[in-house]
Amino acid sequence: MAAVYLSICRMLETNTTSVLLEENASKIKSDDVGWEYGSLADLSNKDKVKCLFCNHVIIGGVYRHKQHVAHVGNFVAKCKKSSQEAKDRCKKSLEEASKKRMEKTSRELELREGVNISRVGDA
Ligand SMILES: [Zn+2]
Questions:
Q1: pLDDT for 38-71, tens place per residue?
Q2: Is 40 helix (H, G, I), strand (E, B) or coil?
Q3: Who contacts 56 (Cβ-Cβ below 8 Å, separation ≥6)?
Q4: Helix (H) / strand (E) containing 50
Q5: What separation in Å is there between the alpha carbon of 1 and the centre of ligand 1?
Q6: Interval between CA 23 and ligand 1 midpoint (Å)
Q7: Alpha carbon of 21 to ligand 1 centroid (Å)
């Protein structure tokens, strides 16, 4: 009886783990266009993305994967099989991401300058 009970427990544990992994995968996967051309190669490591065109595994997340598909940058191997549409969409998404980063940085600089000015006023 004990053995049966144990194996049921193990079955339950296995099920719970796979559900958790699936939840993680959907959390990791955003609506980023890069996921249309890649999938998680390792559910426990969101930095490993498998290219759907050439099955190459890119380490460095979906951002690097998009560079791979779009042939952008010098740090990733370029995808030999990506379609022109995929290249364009990934490239556009990369450009938007870098534009957003720049906007954020300039806002932060403005905020910091604002803090400095108010400190001068206090003294
Ligand atoms: Zn590829």
A1: 999 998 998 999 999 999 999 999 999 999 999 9
A2: strand
A3: 50, 68, 77, 79
A4: strand 48-51
A5: 52
A6: 26
A7: 25
